Amino acid sequence: MADPVTMTSIANVGHPVEITFTDAKHCKAAALRGLLWNVDPETGCCVVIHMKGGVPAVATAFAHGIAAVTRMDTDGRQVEGYAALQAAAARLRERVHAGAGAGGKTTADVTAALTKARLPHKVVDGGVVSVLDGAALVRPPYAAANISCTNDQILRKLIEMLQ
Question: What is the pLDDT of residues 16-63, one digit of tens each?
């Protein structure tokens, strides 16, 4: 069973938080403020999107150094650049849910390329893109290895598009 700090962390995923540390050797600052992106339930490590030099960045807070995880105001007033952090989280969430693979392609990237190439397509269950009324299927993560197609000409065209 996870410890109380990990359980508190999990309850705060998606919210603005302040993570305080047990001592200075675990972090250069006394606290880390940002948007809690994820918590590893096994280790208790927290992934936080925070502002670094005026730009959203990702930091990992290791569980052994965390003293507490405290939820901030829900409107994020206490967190620097909260609107930018929310936008960064939304972009990251879209890439994760759209099946961005190693090449970083999202469903929107693939459908835009297919539209530009004037290839009829539609998104079906689970983000699978059906091309030419099912003649080819492109599954997330969108890479050449995830294309199902028996027509070599269509397959070559789709592989080119995904590279």
Answer: 888 888 876 656 677 888 888 888 877 888 888 888 888 888 888 888
Which of 59, 37, 44, 62 has the alpha carbon at shortest distance from 8? 44
At 130-142, the pLDDT tens digits run 999 989 998 877 8
Q: Where are the alpha helices (DSSP H) in the chain?
A: 4-11, 82-97, 107-116, 152-162
CA 60 – CA 19 distance, rounded (Å) = 11
Q: Among positive and negative, which fits the CA dihedral 100, 103, 109, 111?
A: negative
**87 within 8 A of 77, measured Cβ to Cβ:** no
Tell me if 144 sits within 8 A of 162, measured CB to CB: yes
Whether residue 59 contacts residue 18, with contact meaning beta carbons closer than 8 Å, is answered with no
